[in-house]
Write a structure and sequence with these properties.
single chain; about 240 residues; alpha/beta; Rossmann fold; seven-stranded mixed β-sheet; about 20% strand; globular; transferase; RNA_methyltr_RlmE; methyltransferase; rRNA (uridine-2'-O-)-methyltransferase activity
């Protein structure tokens, strides 16, 4: 069954394996294909409710002796799931887009994150163009949080996206929280603007590609932008 909200294979597997949501399998596929999270990684999970990606991220760190941490931020208060998580996982109830980048950076002992996951999604209205625009706005904000004014320094930027990023950046806090060589995953809703967004990211990262995970429901327009290896010239 593929209708939204109906139990299907991934829903049943999530229940069987102790994941709090079927969305765990989206990150599991991303991790299997791209191996973004390695032992010792510092991971920031934006829009972390209900916690399935926290579980997969923590699992991907390996045994606790390997170190690393996972910080989840959401507008909702999220309890760290008991299964697949350990003391390296913490959550914060806040609007990450209203937090100064300096405050977000300080959440990691490494003063930044090696992987940023954004599974944020707007409250959908059912109007495709409106929902896609809201999704793109969240994606832009996640990109700005990750790389700061680096995106603005790219001469290939699309004007509309550049203007949005200007609005999201403040002169007193211009540096992103993603470390050099780090990876960024952003969920978007498919639209003609997604390719423009992809073109913005490509010069900033070693590689940028789009993926529609197998666990995505057939009725969903979700697609993930996988950005690998933040280039050193993208940071100040």
């Amino acid at each position: 069954m593929s209708g939204a909200g109906k139990p299907d294979f991934f829903y049943r597997e999530a229940q069987r394996l102790g994941y709090v949501a079927r969305s765990a399998f989206k990150l599991l596929q991303i991790q299997k294909q791209y191996k973004l999270i390695i032992p010792g990684s510092s991971v920031l999970d934006l829009g972390c409710a209900p916690g399935a990606w926290l579980q997969v991220a923590c699992q991907s760190l390996g045994p606790i002796k390997n170190g690393g941490l996972v910080v989840g931020i959401d507008l909702k208060k999220v309890k760290v799931p008991a299964m697949h998580c350990d003391s390296r996982v913490q959550t914060l109830c806040a609007d990450v887009m209203k937090l100064p980048k300096t405050s977000v950076r300080e959440l990691s002992p490494q003063k930044g994150f090696s992987v940023i996951l954004s599974d944020m999604c707007p409250l959908v209205s059912g109007i495709a163009s409106k929902d896609a625009a809201l999704s793109l706005e969240l994606g832009m904000q996640a990109l700005d949080l990750a790389v700061g004014e680096a995106a603005l320094a790219n001469p290939n930027n699309v004007t509309q996206v550049e203007e949005s990023l200007v609005g999201a950046t403040t002169s007193s806090d211009v540096n992103g929280v993603l470390k050099r060589g780090g990876h960024l995953v952003i969920k978007l809703l498919e639209s003609e603007d997604v390719q423009d967004f992809n073109r913005i990211c490509k010069p900033l990262f070693r590689k940028a590609s789009l993926l529609r995970p197998k666990a995505t429901r057939s009725s969903s327009r979700e697609i993930y932008l996988i950005c690998q290896g933040l280039q050193s010239q993208a940071r100040t």
